[in-house]
Amino acid sequence: MPGLAAATLRASLRGTWATGSKNPTAERAALTALDKAWQARMADPTDAAAGAALLEHDRAAAALCDPRAFGRVLAALPAQRPEILQNDGIAVFALTTVAPALPQVAALVVERREQQVLRGLARTWLPALMRRAEDYARRPSRRVEAELLALTMPSSPTIALLEQPPMVAPQRTDALATWAASQHPTRTAHVLYGDLDLDRAARQLARAFATTALPAPPRPNLRAARPLSARRRSVVARAATDSVSLAWVLPAATDPWVADVAARWLGDARSGRLTNALRKKRPQLELRAIGPWPNGASPGLLRIDARDPDGAAGLAEEVIAECAAAASQPLEEAAYLRANTAAVAEWLRATADSRALAVLLAERALRAPSAAISARAPARVPGAAIRKVLRSTLAGEPAIVEGPR
Fold this sequence. Notes:
Layout: H1 4-11, H2 24-43, H3 48-62, H4 69-76, E1 79-87, E2 90-97, H5 102-114, H6 121-138, H7 141-152, H8 158-162, H9 172-183, H10 198-208, E3 232-235, E4 243-249, H11 256-267, H12 273-278, E5 286-293, E6 301-307, H13 315-328, H14 337-350, H15 354-367, H16 383-394, E7 399-402
Parallel strand pairs: 3-7
Antiparallel strand pairs: 1-2, 4-6, 4-7, 5-6
Helix pairs in contact: 1-6, 1-9, 2-3, 5-10, 11-14, 11-16, 13-16
C-alpha cells in the first residue's frame, strides 16, 4: 500500500514488545480488536456506532502500554534525538550517542527491528494520507511526474505515491509485513560517524546484528529503466498549459554526483547552458534540470522542466535541440566551474554538523551500495565526465509530458 512503509517508520518509535508493553499477550489482543474497529470505521465514516467502538478499543489498547518508554530508555543510555528523517523515498533512523553506550544502543536498535509493535499506526497513517491527498489536489505537477515515470520506469513504486491516494486504512497484518520487509538487513544500511575506536565498534556491532528473525523479503518486481528507442509523448489534463517536462534515462551505473553536476550545468537559473540559450528566444522562460531523479532509482532519469508564460508551443523541441548542442560541445573546464561550486556548496550546507553528515552518508550508502562512501566533500567533476554522461544520456530519446492548450 503506497505510503505504508513510511507510516510504520513513524510508528516505530512508540516502543517494542519488550520496552513499553505492560502485558504483551493482552496488548496483542487489544491491538487486533482495535484494527478491526479501525477497518469498520474507515469503511463507513458516518457510522456512529463504529466510531464509538473505535474510541473504546483505542482506550483499551492505550491502557496496556507506555509508548514513551522506548524514548526514555534510549535517553538514559544516553542516546539523544531519536528521529525518523525522510527524503524522497529514503528514510533514516538517526540518533546521537557516545562510544561507551554503543553496545546498549545497538541492542535497542535490533529490538526495535525485531520486536516492533507499531503502536498508534492510525495516528501516523491518517494525517499522512490527508497530506498526500491535499498535495495531489494542490500540485498538478504530481500528475506530470507520475506520467514521466509511467513512460520511462513503469514499475517504479514512486508512481503510486504521486497518484491520488485511496481513502483506505492498512490492515495490521499488512503493516507488520511491510515493516519486516523494509527493515530486513538486505534493505538497510547502518552508518556510524564520530570519534570511535573502529575495531572495537565493528566487533560490538557484529555481535549485536549477527542474526535476524525477519523473513527474507520478496524480490521487488522492478525492471531497470532502459534508454528509449523512440520518443514518447503524453498530455496531462488540467496540468499547467505553459509547461513541458522531459526525461531521459541515465546510463547504467552513472555516478549520482556526476549526474547532479551535469544537471546543474544545464539548468542553473542564472548561468545554465540551456537556460541562457533558450532565453534568447523566450525571455520569460523558467527552467530546472534534476539528475538523478527520482531519489534512489538506479540508474534514474535526467529530468528537465521548462515553463514559458507566453506559451509552450514548440518548447519541447527547442529544449531537445539545445540539449544535443550542449552535449556535443568540447567546452573548457571553466565552463563547469559554477556547477561544481554550487554542488559542493550545497553539500557543505547540508552537512554543517556531524549528525547531518551521517544522515547524508547513510542515504548514499543505501542508494548506491557499490559506490565509495567518504565523509569529505566530493571532488570536482571533470568536464570530460560531464560530457560523457550527457552524450550517452541524450543519445536516447526523451519522454515528454505537457499540458493541453
